[in-house]
Amino acid sequence: MLHLEKVSCGYGNLTVVENLSLQISKGEIFALIGANGAGKSSTIMSIAGHVKVKSGKIRFKGDDITNLPITKRVRLGIAIAPEGRRLFTDMTVNENLSMGCYSLPKNRLSLNRDKVLKLFPRLDERIEQQAATLSGGEQQMLAIARALMAEPELLIIDELSLGLMPKVIDLCYRAISTLKEQGVTILLVEQNTTRALEVADRICVLESGRDVWQGTAKGAGNDPDLIKAYLGLDQE
Amino acid sequence: MLFFDLLVQGLLQGGIYALIAIGLTLVYGLLRILHVAHAGLYTLGGYIAILITNATGSFTLGITVSMVSVGFMGMVIYRLIYQPILEKPPFVALIASIGLFIAMEEIYRIVFGAYGITFADAPLQGTLNIAGIYLRHCEIGALLLAALLITSLSLFTRYSRIGIAWRATVTDPGMSQSFGVDVIKVRYLNFFIGSAMAAGAGSMVAVMNNLVEPTMGSVPSYKALAIIVLGGLGNVRGTVIAALIIGVAEAFGTIYLGNILDRDSIAFALLILVLMVKPTGLFSKG
Fold it and tell me: The domain containing residue A190 runs over which residues?
């Protein structure tokens, strides 16, 4: 579904990610893992069109989208729940959700809203509340729900668990599993390696803008060198 | 009775200020540009209203043509002046805007003359006695127009799809693009609406004074800046309230503080007082 071919991207003269190649298949959860500054967010923001691709190609469903305007990517089926949530804070939950659906015909609004509120019932209770007044967990739910309103074929989620309580993290990951069952392809950026390995089918480990390991999540869990060097997990 | 008379006069002036300042705060909210030349569009609105009314005898047509054509003029200014320098530091756009405003005043002087133009037969000059307060029809018209335009803008941004997208773009242009909003179109819409509202105010002031002259926008240009700072930069609701507060303060101040403060300095005295207590303005969240 998504294919990055030797992609380098960055800001101005600075190249953050170099020669990254990866392929994500339909229906899988793919996790990008790495420390702060590894280039995870830059990679996904280049897929969403916010960061300039300096060389290489990004293909989505076979089409070259490397230089496609941001506004057209959502129409192809790419939606993002970015780092820091970036909600429209002055607007209500309902208005944020309706913005998620902006690229679709009007009649999809109520149908999609019903679907995402079923996934995140907490948002239903806060539907007329201003986004800025929600808790961190509710804001993360809203960021994901807003992206889902666009009926994405590829959902990109950046730092899903960052700054959230364990209970809320559980809730968000349960939603991720439900979405996978529904056939949504998910590209997940996560510093919480344990949680990422639990849900991901495959992972890519980034370090200083280069991929140092790619393979199945199961394979990563069984590779002591990888665990020791990059994943920071406790080995039993 | 004097109290109510001053209150009504203050609200009337505040309504006019609000119509001018809304465009300024809309542009600031979206582009972080202080669009000083906006006051030049307010003057242009007055000129067009008079020219069309004199040519056709219909003020309704005059104000409509004025608002629509000045709305488009605002879009042209965005395209030709601001869009090419959006990536430059903010002072570049500010200097460009001040330069444009001065140029507009000089063009009006060359084209229409230094002494201004008047209606051949000024419309809406009759008076109405409302509970002992005498108001001219044009003053009532100005109040109604301000109320209508501000309410319409509020409904538009709250309930229409493009209006909600507009608010989203003001908050986070990048994310709104991610959901398919064409930010360039939103900017054009922003300039159209803001400029059309200023033209509406210019047209009504033209009727109330039966005069439009080249420097008509000078005082509103700096007063509108005071209003949008007072209301919290980029905050439309705050701008409307601040405009009404300044209008009323000026009406009362002229009577009770006239010996100490000039009418046009009251807005700034109020601004200084408020900024000493709340540096981000009355209604900013910052």
Answer: 26-49+70-231
Strand order in the sheet with A2-11: A14-24, A2-11, A52-60, A63-64
- Tokens found for residue B8: 């009504």
- A75 contacts on B by Cβ (under 8 Å): 180
DSSP β-bridge partners for residue A23: A3
Among A79, A98, A146, beta carbon nearest to B164: A98
Task: Looking at the complex, report in whole angstroms how far the Cα of residue A203 sits from the nearest Cα belonging to chain B.
Answer: 25
Mind telling me how many Å the CA of A154 is from chain B's nearest CA?
Answer: 13
Partner residue opposite B168 with nearest CB, options A49, A88, A150:
A88
Classify residue A170: in a domain, yes or no. Answer: yes
Does residue A21 lie in a domain region? no
Token pair 């800046």 is found at: B225
Average pLDDT, chain B: 93
Contact B167 A91 (CB under 8 A): yes
The answer, yes or no, to whether residue B168 has pLDDT greater than 90, is yes
Does A99 sit within 8 Å of B168, measured CB to CB?
yes
Considering its fold, how many domains does chain A have in total?
A: 1
Which tens digit of pLDDT belongs to each residue from B15-51? 999 999 999 999 998 999 999 999 999 999 999 999 9
CB–CB contact A91 B171 (8 Å): yes
Nearest CA distance, A7 vs chain B (angstrom):
21
Contact A151, B180 (CB under 8 A): no
Nearest CA in chain A to B177: A71
pLDDT band of A236, cuts 50, 70, 90 = very low
pLDDT at A235 over 50: no
CATH number of the domain encompassing residue A74: 3.40.50.300
- Of A201, A227, A199, the residue nearest A213 (C-alpha): A227
From chain B, the residues in CB contact with A69 under 8 A are 177
CB contacts < 8 Å between A and B, how many?
A: 64
Pairwise CA distance, residues B102 & B115, whole Å = 17
3-state helix, strand, coil in chain A (%, to 5): 40, 30, 30
- Under DSSP, the state recorded for B212 is B
Question: Does residue A186 sit within a domain?
Answer: yes
Strand A210-216: give its sheet, edge to edge.
A78-81, A154-158, A185-190, A29-34, A202-207, A210-216
To the nearest whole angstrom, how far is the Cα of A162 from the nearest Cα of chain B?
A: 19
CB A91 within 8 A of CB A130: yes
Nearest to A192 by CA among A164, A223, A171, A212: A164
Task: Give B117's DSSP letter.
Answer: B
